[in-house]
Design a protein that fits this description.
It contains eight helices and five strands, in the order αααααββααβββα. Helix 2 crosses helix 4 (65-85) and helix 6 (141-154) runs antiparallel to helix 8 (193-205). A hairpin with a 5-residue loop joins strand 1 (126-127) and strand 2 (133-134). The chain has two domains: 3-94, Orthogonal Bundle (DNA polymerase, domain 1), CATH 1.10.150; 110-205, hpI Integrase, Chain A (Orthogonal Bundle). The protein is mainly alpha-helical. 50% of the residues lie in helices and 7% in strands. The strands form two sheets. Strands 3-4-5 form a three-stranded antiparallel sheet, with no helix packed on it.
Length: 215
């Protein structure tokens, strides 16, 4: 069986197992593989072909090591399926798994966090037609402070905090449910006193809103 036909069978069997983001990433990897090695017979694709392909991603397309690792994972998943379904050699077993360097996470200093919280209170200064420099109080100050402290305290990404709802916060337990994390997974994140106080102040400002008792 040729590569393109085998990929069709793989998706029929596996598509439902992956998140939309994973499907998109895998499809891109497989499309690039087809372009690079051609629509060969599966049995004709060797370890050397895969190594050349991964080198092509890194050197010619100048993709990052993490992206190349993701491509390796996609190919390994495909050949694991093909080994069972098509009885072909699992070439990925002898292809070295890329090892990207882990970037050191830069932590905000206490002073930087204080500056961000202070910036929530007033708008960026602007100059009126009379050349007077003015600022105004921001109506979203309490909300923005709560969001910043949830990110800092819980280690959440901006994209994760941006989609949180009141229903995701369990006030008594001091936990927030991250429903849209990487890979569409869910996790419960405990918050410290500073973040919980900030949320309490924000909810107090919203008279008709109370947290849902999440299970």
């Amino acid at each position: 069986m040729r590569l393109e036909r085998a990929l069709d069978g793989y998706w029929l069997a596996k598509r439902r197992d992956f998140s939309p983001n994973t499907v998109r990433d895998y499809e891109l990897t497989f499309r690039r593989l087809l372009e690079h090695v051609g629509n060969k017979e599966m049995s004709a694709i060797k370890v050397a072909d895969i190594n050349e392909f991964l080198n092509h991603l890194f050197e010619d397309l100048e993709l990052g090591k993490k992206t190349v690792l993701n491509a390796w994972i996609a190919l390994s998943s495909f050949w694991s399926w093909a080994e069972t379904e098509l009885k072909v050699e699992h070439v990925m077993r002898t292809v070295t798994r890329p090892k990207p360097r882990r970037k050191a996470i830069k932590l905000y200093t206490l002073e930087e966090v204080r500056d961000m919280l202070l910036a929530c209170d007033v708008s960026k200064p602007w100059v009126t037609v009379n050349r007077i420099r003015v600022t105004s109080k921001r109506s979203t100050a309490l909300r923005d402070k709560a969001m910043i402290l949830v990110m800092v305290d819980g280690g959440l990404r901006v994209s994760e905090v941006a989609v949180l709802t009141i229903a995701d916060y369990h006030e008594k337990r001091g936990q927030v449910r991250v429903r849209h994390g990487k890979g569409d997974k869910q996790r419960l994140v405990p918050l410290g006193d500073a973040a919980r106080r900030a949320i309490w102040r924000y909810l107090g400002e919203r008279e008709n809103v109370r947290p849902t008792r999440c299970s």
